[in-house]
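Field reference: sequence -> structure
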Amino acid sequence: MLFWLGVHKPRWLERLDVPLMVSHRQLSREPNLPRARAPWALDSGAFSEIAAHGRFLTTPVAYAAAVRRYSGEIGNLAWAAPQDWMCEPIILRGGTVGAQRFAGTGLSVAEHQRRTIASVLELRWTAADLPWIPVLQGFALDDYGRHVDAYARAGIDLGAEPLVGLGSVCRRQATSEIDRIVTTLAGMGFRLHGFGVKTSGLGRYGWALPSADSGAWSLAARRSRPLPGCVHPRGGKTCANCPRYALWWRDRVLARCTGNQQLTLPGTAA
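Structure field:
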């Protein structure tokens, strides 16, 4: 598996020598972009934008222009996600989960799937030189199968794509349903990327994912004591913004994926 460490500090691109996943939402706030030391991938920030507004405020033209800027100024961009439309019920219907409010789109799974394909096609037409990947969306297993067929009708052969993102799974990973979705799609010959995969998901179906990302290290760090020797500025009491902790966590995730050792985090369960 090629593992992309999810980070919320874009300046880490110029500090770390491992593959990183960075969000457009974070990069768009940077007036001066860093130069990447290693390959990195771009998350479009689609979940946050749709959750908050029920639609995209960022136009496809503006997003493509931003990605072109990132590609040129940061360098080493491996691939970029489209403005895909996730299909969890809370996204469609809206509501509140914990402290987070979801606006709701009022649309169907099929319409979200149609709009996801439309985004891929429009971005590839607008900026054909940039490395866009398609993303499969759905909720039930049959939804994903219908989306595969819809991509084929749109002229996109997912089996020929170097990478296919798998959406709407990261918040329900420790379930047998996600096992079936991942293994079924992998069995169809698709090279899948798992967005926001947590350690529980990697332990269940990581073997079927040639690519995955996770930023779960930051939450783990907030629940743990700092690593020995870590002293953070401004009275920071955890390693939630610590590149040393992020790399430490990443090493243990990769060790678990290869079966060399169990992943353990200080102060948390594996």
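Note: The radius of gyration is 18 Å.
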